[in-house]
Design brief:
333 residues; alpha/beta; 11 strands; 36% helix; 17% strand
C-alpha cells in the first residue's frame, strides 16, 4: 500500500538554491513510487527558477505558507531576508576579520527569526484548515533551515504515532555558529535526534559529528546525487570547446574551502611546459568570486577564471555537462 507522507521543507521547488534540490528530489521520487506526498514549504521564493518547477508537479499537494508576523516586520523595515545578489563581489575574509562574528550573528539571527515565523504559520495552517495529522503515517523533515525541524518537533509532539524521518543536510551546530545561538541549537539538535524515529544524514562525517556515537541503530547515510532527467534537455556547448575546462560551482564558505592545490598544480605543469596555461579555463559560479581570485592570484592564474556569478539551474547543469573536470572541495573543521 502507498504511504501517506507529510514532507516539511522550508526550501523547495521552484526555489533555485542548493538547499531546495535534495528535498525536492526526495519528494519527487517518493511520489513516483506511488506514495501520496503532501509538501509544506514557504510561498516566498527569492530565486524562482521555472526550470525547476516540473519536479514539484509529482507531489499530491504543495502547501506554500505566507510570511508570518516576524518576517513581514523584517521586510517592512529591512527588506527581504535573502535578497543578496549571489554574484556580488565581497572582500576576502582577511580584510575584515573584526566583522565576521557580527556578520554571522546577524545572519543567524535573521534565519532563526524566519524559522520561528515558519512554525507560527504552520501551526496556523493546521488550525485554520482543520488538518488531521493522523491521516499521515510518515513525516519527513529536511534541515536546514531550522524552520523545517521546528515544525517536525511540533508535529511529533501533537501526533506521537506518526513515523518521523529527520533528514540532515548540515549539522545544527558548527564552527561558525554564533555563541548566542549555540546553546539553543545544541538542545534542538539533541531533541530532534532523540524524538525522530529515523535519522538520515548526507555524509558519514556529518552523522558522526551530530550523533557522537548515539542513536546509530536508527541512523543512515543517503548521499546526494544527480537526477538523470535533469540532463535530458542539456545540449552540448561547442563554444570554447578547444579549451580544457575545469569548473567549480558553489560556495567557498568565505575562503574555508580552498582550491589552491589545483592552481598550484596548474602552475607547475605550465612551468614545465607540460600544458599551455592559455588552453585552460576555470569556470566559477557562486557568490565567493573574491576568495577564488585571491587564491588563484597567489599563482598568477586569476586570468584563467571565468566568473558566471549567479546561474539558473538549467545553465548550471549545462556548464557542468560541458566541462572536462568538475571540482569538489571541502575543509577540515
Amino acid at each position: 500500500d502507498p504511504h501517506k507522507i507529510l514532507f516539511i521543507s522550508y526550501l523547495f521547488s521552484p526555489e533555485n538554491t542548493i538547499g531546495a534540490i535534495r528535498p525536492t528530489k526526495i519528494a519527487k521520487y517518493l511520489a513516483l513510487r506511488n506514495n501520496i506526498v503532501d509538501v509544506v514549504s514557504v510561498k516566498n521564493k527569492v530565486h524562482r527558477d521555472e526550470y525547476f518547477v516540473n519536479d514539484a508537479k509529482y507531489v499530491n499537494h504543495l502547501i506554500e505558507l505566507d510570511d508570518g508576523p516576524i518576517v513581514s516586520h523584517i521586510k517592512k523595515y529591512y527588506g527581504n531576508v535573502s535578497t543578496k545578489n549571489k554574484s556580488v563581489i565581497v572582500l576576502p575574509r582577511s580584510v575584515k576579520p573584526k566583522w565576521m562574528a557580527l556578520k554571522h550573528f546577524y545572519r543567524q539571527g535573521l534565519l532563526f527569526l524566519s524559522s520561528i515565523d515558519f512554525l507560527i504559520k504552520y501551526r496556523e495552517y493546521l488550525k485554520n484548515n482543520s488538518i488531521q495529522l493522523s491521516k499521515y503515517d510518515i513525516l519527513i523533515t529536511s534541515y536546514g533551515p531550522l524552520g523545517s525541524l521546528l515544525c517536525g518537533l511540533y508535529t511529533k509532539l501533537i501526533c506521537k504515532n506518526i513515523f518521523w524521518i529527520s533528514d540532515y543536510r548540515d549539522p545544527l551546530v558548527h564552527e561558525d555558529t554564533s555563541s548566542a545561538f549555540r546553546p539553543i541549537l545544541t538542545i534542538l539538535q539533541k531533541l530532534s535526534t532523540l524524538q525522530a524515529d529515523k535519522l538520515i544524514f548526507v555524509t558519514n562525517g556529518y552523522m558522526d559529528r551530530v550523533l557522537k556515537g548515539s542513536y546509530k541503530y536508527k541512523a543512515s547515510v543517503m548521499v546526494s546525487g544527480y537526477d538523470l532527467e535533469d540532463l535530458c534537455n542539456v545540449g552540448v556547448d561547442k563554444s570554447g570547446s578547444e579549451k580544457y575546462t575545469i569548473s567549480y560551482l558553489g560556495s567557498l564558505y568565505e575562503g574555508k574551502r580552498t582550491l589552491e592545490p589545483i592552481f598550484n598544480a596548474l602552475k607547475k605543469l605550465s612551468e614545465k611546459d607540460i600544458i599551455n596555461i592559455n588552453d585552460v579555463i576555470f569556470n566559477y559560479a557562486g557568490n565567493d568570486i573574491a576568495y577564488l581570485i585571491e587564491q588563484a592570484s597567489k599563482y598568477n592564474l586569476e586570468k584563467i577564471i571565468h566568473n558566471y556569478g549567479y546561474l539558473s539551474r538549467e545553465k548550471s547543469i549545462s556548464v557542468q555537462h560541458n566541462s572536462r573536470v568538475l571540482v569538489i572541495s571541502t575543509w577540515n573543521s
